[in-house]
Design brief:
3 domains, 5-stranded mixed beta sheet, 3-stranded antiparallel beta sheet, 10 helices, LysR_HTH_N, LysR_subst-bd, transcription regulation
Length: 315
């Protein structure tokens, strides 16, 4: 049984006449009558009562008409659903992000605005380090990812730089480099602003860094900046996430560097200090995705993020 037979049958059932149904279907009446006969043979019973001036549905025909209508309606719904998925209006996106990328307001603004603009698309989030995100993007286990500075840029992936921001030093409250201030809170200034520190002032510190395999780009940049500043840093601990490093600084186990946007993390036992000279240290924010995308919803997200970037720069 073919779908066209259902359409022929319903046309005759609605018109109650073969001639009008044939005109509606843009075909001749004899072939239509023949197709209906073949359908009745396949169903195994008469669907119409033939009368001199038309036809009427038999009880079996009435029941079959209800089923045929449902089948064609479900088919049309399926076609519409598939087309919306192909246009990227429906579907699911897996978005990966590093902890520091997730702290930048632009990341959450893009995700939230996209979700509001495309309510038919389900968003899944996964927090991983940069190396893990690259691996999952290549394996197509993640559709798009927000990350900082990748060293590895495989040809199968595309990277869009959304913005760049400075790095800041995270010191424990009361650290000697913060000096004394009129407030007595150890933030280095009576106006509540922490002091700007030259990188070389940190030469004797114990550094807490995100493990090199997890964030190789930022790790390498830091080592190069310290070399230019005239010292070799003592990396006392390596951690899986920047937030872990901040917690360790709060516990007095060392100091760390993070993107400036992570100052939004309200931790009462640390102070975020700017660097007086950047020494080439910065924290770019990238959107990474497969160069060839197979998920239309993810393609729509990338276009949306690019447009948001343009709007942000224009503003």
């Amino acid at each position: 049984m073919e779908l066209r037979h259902l359409r022929y049958f319903l046309a005759v059932a609605e018109e109650r006449q073969f001639t009008r149904a044939a005109e509606r279907l843009a075909m001749q009446q004899p072939p239509l009558s023949q197709q209906i006969r073949l359908l009745e043979e396949e169903v195994g019973c008469e669907l119409f009562v033939r009368m001199p001036r038309g036809v009427e549905l038999t009880p079996a025909g009435e029941a079959f008409a209800q089923t045929a209508t449902l089948v064609l309606e479900r088919l049309q719904q399926g076609v519409s659903h598939a087309r919306r998925i192909a246009r990227g209006e429906l579907g699911t996106i897996s978005i990966g992000l590093t902890s520091s990328a997730g702290f930048h307001p632009l990341t959450t603004q893009i995700i939230r605005a996209f979700g509001a603009a495309q309510p038919g698309i389900e968003i899944e989030l996964a927090e991983l380090n940069a190396a893990e995100l690259i691996e999952r993007l290549l394996a197509r286990q993640v559709d798009v990812a927000f990350l900082r500075k990748p060293v590895e840029t495989p040809a199968d992936l595309s990277f869009v730089q959304l913005l760049d921001e400075p790095m800041v030093v995270v010191l424990p409250l009361g650290h000697a480099l913060l000096g004394r201030d009129r407030d007595g809170d150890g933030d280095g200034g009576g106006d509540g602003e922490p002091p700007a520190l030259p990188l070389e002032a940190l030469a004797g510190e114990d550094f807490i860094l995100v493990r090199r395999p997890g964030a190789p780009g930022m790790y390498a940049d830091f080592l190069a900046a310290c070399k230019r500043a005239g010292f070799l840093p003592h990396v006392a601990r390596e951690v899986p996430r920047m937030l872990t490093g901040i917690h360790m600084v709060a516990a007095g186990l060392g100091v760390t560097l993070v993107p400036a946007s992570m100052r939004h993390y309200d931790h009462g036992n640390v102070v975020f200090c700017p660097l007086s000279r950047a020494h080439g240290l910065s924290a770019p924010l990238h959107l990474a995705h497969p160069a060839t995308m197979h998920n239309p919803a993810a393609e729509r997200f990338v276009d949306f993020a690019r447009a948001s970037q343009v709007q942000a720069r224009a503003g």
